[in-house]
Design a protein that fits this description.
Structural class: mainly alpha
Radius of gyration: 16 Å
Order of helices and strands: HHHHH
Strand content: under 5%
Distance between the termini: 26 Å
Helix content: 55-70%
Number of domains: 1
Amino acid sequence: MCAYDATIITLFNIWHEEPTLMTISWQAIGSDHLHMLTQSFATHHSVNSDLPFSLDQIRDYFRHHMSRVSEEFAIGRYASVHSIFLYLLKMHWPALMHVECPNMHEVDHDQ
């Protein structure tokens, strides 16, 4: 399984649980790439299962799309799930993060 498979499967399964809520939430992030995937998932979800439309096609389309937007994702070059998610979830404004251990352990904010 490649990083694109893992990314598409993970995002689809999250989206599939609450399609409307996830579509709205992901649109708020402001990522054109994530919006494209959301639209692809909605199309995939609404198509009859006997039609030749699959998550593999979404993956391939997404992979080629990413190869055009950044040299980091060039076809034939290694891409990690981490790097794909960083690119997908990149926000146009600063995000605040709060990390807290429920067991009151010290949290290393540099990792």
